[in-house]
Design the sequence.
């Protein structure tokens, strides 16, 4: 969990769509990593950001994005 910015969703009001989208996540769901706001974002199949990687994880993985074959949600 140290690779995920755990406070990302908490920055949004309770009524924001990010909370409903996070609640619907299921193990095995597809996701995409893309650069946004200086960090890597975890984006769903509709292009909505659900989470961000930490600064350290973003630095580690940003240079490796082309080598990643698939992203999946794990429980």
Sequence:
């Amino acid at each position: 969990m140290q690779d995920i910015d755990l406070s990302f969703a908490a920055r949004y009001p309770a009524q924001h769509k990010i909370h409903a989208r996070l609640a619907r996540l299921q193990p095995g769901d597809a996701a995409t990593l893309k650069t946004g706001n200086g960090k890597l974002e975890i984006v769903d199949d509709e292009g909505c950001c659900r989470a961000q990687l930490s600064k350290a994880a973003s630095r580690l993985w940003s240079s490796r994005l082309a080598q990643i074959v698939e992203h999946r949600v794990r429980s």
Remarks:
- Residues 31 and 44 are 5 Å apart (CA to CA).
